[in-house]
TrEMBL record:
GO biological process: removal of superoxide radicals
Reaction equations catalysed: [thioredoxin]-dithiol + NADP(+) = [thioredoxin]-disulfide + NADPH + H(+)
Keywords: Disulfide bond, FAD, Flavoprotein, NADP, Oxidoreductase, Redox-active center
Family, as annotated: Belongs to the class-II pyridine nucleotide-disulfide oxidoreductase family.
Record text on cofactor binding: Binds 1 FAD per subunit.
Protein's name in the database: Thioredoxin reductase
Organism of provenance: Tichowtungia aerotolerans
PANTHER family with a match to the protein in the record: THIOREDOXIN REDUCTASE 1-RELATED-RELATED
One Pfam family it belongs to: Pyr_redox_2
Ranges of residues in domain FAD/NAD(P)-binding: 3-291
Cellular component annotations (GO), alphabetically ordered: cytoplasm
The EC number(s) this enzyme carries: 1.8.1.9
Length: 306
């Protein structure tokens, strides 16, 4: 039986691995099928402390992984598909059928941004297509960009992006926002924001530059196709926390985010770190902070058991 299993990587999982490894908890880290998480798709990160010139997301995650390995963390490929936290021995089962037991578990499986799912969009994620305005907005100074969505999050992101972009076009498939009235009023009144109602993205154009150069837009009422020249597309249609494997084992809210007090779930010895329990901030640095906190809590829990 292991002392600590960490499920998921990214800044939360890797930070938890660094701290638990340094505490001699000999953590086993289950990497999932996307080691390093969403940041591996980000070419430039300018807001992570310690990198004044910015850092490539994949490079940052690889350096975190190497740091955890240096202190003795063990990494296993695979994805957790089922868990049993009802006993003192916490059990997780991997997609390949392997079962692992541990005294403590840190869940850092993150939350995946919902995208439109069209091929041209997927090809340009991290190269002009983003699911996080606060992460990437500063890269789009004085250029036109677009935001897809009609809820509070989409309008908040659009308003935030007006700090940088020359113009922000909101694309919404309906003829009115789902957002609160106050957010809708703010967006509609902003001089940099234009709204294209009844509109969906048919294609993200890159003109062989491997970066966003425009969008093909379809009006859902008339089927008319038009082109919108933009340098960035921000998709703000929600996030899905990666918690399916823990249904029935841990408390979640309606969206599927794990409910925790700080990083402690209601199940002793099980901790939630990063975006899997954070629907508000969703930043690399906040995820890393909760990874640290979860590791410290796991260390205290094991110390009290002894």
């Amino acid at each position: 039986m292991e002392k600590t299993i960490i499920i998921g990587t990214g800044p939360a999982g890797y930070t938890a691995a660094i701290y638990t490894a340094r505490a001699n908890l000999e953590p086993v880290v289950i990497e999932g099928f996307e080691p390093g998480g969403q940041l591996t798709q980000t070419t430039d990160i300018e807001n992570f402390p310690g990198f004044p010139e910015g850092v490539d997301g994949n490079t940052l995650m690889m350096q975190m992984r190497q740091q955890a390995e240096r202190f003795g963390a063990k990494f296993i490929s695979g994805e957790v598909v089922e868990a049993d936290f009802s006993k003192d021995r916490k059990t997780v089962r991997l997609s390949g059928g392997e079962e692992l037991e541990a005294q403590t578990v840190i869940i850092a499986t993150g939350a995946s941004a919902r995208y439109l799912g069209i091929e041209s969009e997927q090809k340009l994620i991290g190269r002009g297509v983003s699911g996080c305005a606060t992460c990437d907005g500063a890269f789009y100074r004085d250029v036109p960009i677009a935001v897809v969505g009609g809820g509070d999050t989409a309008l908040e992101e659009a308003l935030f992006l007006t700090r940088f972009a020359s113009k922000v076009t909101i694309l919404h498939r309906r003829d009115e926002f789902r957002a609160s009235k106050i957010m809708a009023d703010r967006a509609l009144a902003h001089e940099k924001i234009e709204v294209l109602w009844d509109s969906v993205v048919e294609e993200v154009m890159d003109v062989e530059k491997n970066e966003v150069t425009g969008l093909k837009i379809r009006n859902v009422k008339t089927d008319e196709i038009s082109e919108l020249p933009v340098h960035g597309l921000f998709v703000a249609i929600g996030h899905k926390p990666n918690t399916d494997a823990f249904k029935g084992q841990l408390e979640m809210n309606e969206q599927g985010y794990l409910i925790a007090e700080g990083v402690k779930t209601k199940t002793e010895g099980v901790y939630a770190a990063g975006d899997v329990a954070d629907a508000v901030y969703r930043q690399a640095v906040t995820a890393a902070g909760t990874g640290c906190a979860a590791a410290l809590e796991a260390e205290r829990y094991l110390g009290n058991m002894e």
